[in-house]
Structure formats: structure tokens, C-alpha cells
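Before the break, one more example. Copy the sequence into your notebook; we will annotate it together after we see the structure.
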Amino acid sequence: MNMAGRPARQPGRAWQAGEALYIPHMDQAQFYGGNFLLALPGMQDQRFDHSVLALCVHDADGALGIAVSEEMEGLGLRELLESFDIDASKVPDTPVLRGGPVEPRRGFVLHSLDWAGQDMMQVNNLWGLSGSLDILKAIAEQRGPSRYLVALGYAGWGAGQLEEEMTGESWFLAPGNADLLFDTPARRKWAAIFAASGVDSTHLVGGAGLA
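Here is what the structure looks like once it is written out:
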């Protein structure tokens, strides 16, 4: 799996001040932004075993998704905020998610739409995606979004790569849902989203079939 290409900027560290996300044109009639990608048991790339990705960008130039099903060991939100000299005393020490293998030190926040910063990208009418320090400061000062997930890294595809993978036995496409995204614990998301789509994940076997 060639996970490369998006977003175009290459910052030296996560959340560089003033850094804006690349926001492409999205044709919702043809592409799948705003949906979930669930890794099927037959996927060869073990980095994505039982992964759930919130697909935020999908257009003719490629795709970008944030993995939301794996917590990073030994890293919580307070430590991350403090690494940017942000007072973290008022925020819960929620886990930081492993967002994907590309640019693993670059930060993103998936969040509810009751907060909007200058670089926010709205994904359908479901969630926002932000990638600057502004949202971290807002969260720390309790003026940020009511629901959010903080992740480091992302999964990216070049033009046509995701479409090719989706014709094989790698991904299951499920409708995006803000409640499932924000309210379901990371390790339970994979089974919960399959269940919401009418699929019993305990019956899935390699090759994308059912036992």
C-alpha cells in the first residue's frame, strides 16, 4: 500500500502556527469523503488491522483519512498540549490517537461543528477537520468544540489509489456518523460501525467473506 501524497505541505512538526490544511474540491456524487473506511480481515497491510478511518478528503487527486481506532501508548492530550507550552490543567487527559503512518508527528483534530477556525475543513455536515494550534489553544481554554478527537499522522492515497484498493478485499465503506465517531471508544469502533451497517464482525473472515 502506497500511503503518500496528502496533504501537500510538509511541516517540520505537528501544528505549526498558521499552518493551513490543503482543502480540495470534493464532488460528493462521485467520491466518498465523510464516510468510514473499515479494514477487512483480508487486508495485507497489517498496519491497518482492524482499523477505522474517518475519510475526510477524496477527490480526483487522491484521498486523506484519519485513523480513529487506535490509541497511542504513553501519550495523552495534556502531555501533547504541554509540549506546545499550552496550559493543560483544565482539560481531561484523553488519549491521543494514532492517525496513520504518514507524517506521524503532524497533528489533526476531528471535531464537532460547533467550533470553526480559519483552517477548518467541514466534512459533509458531520464533522470538522482542523490542523493548527488554534484549536488546541481553544480546547485548553474551554472554548473549543464540544466533541473532538486528537490524532497524530494520517493515511493518504494518490490519484486513483483508494478507488483501486476498494475494488479488492481491503476496505468496507460505511456511512459517516458523528455519534459513532466521537462517542464510541477507539477499540470498539470497528465492531460498532460494522454492526451499525448490519454486519456481524465476528463472522468476517479473510477474503472479505462471512464465515
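The longest strand covers residues 102-111. The chain has five helices and twelve strands. Try to locate both features in your own notes.
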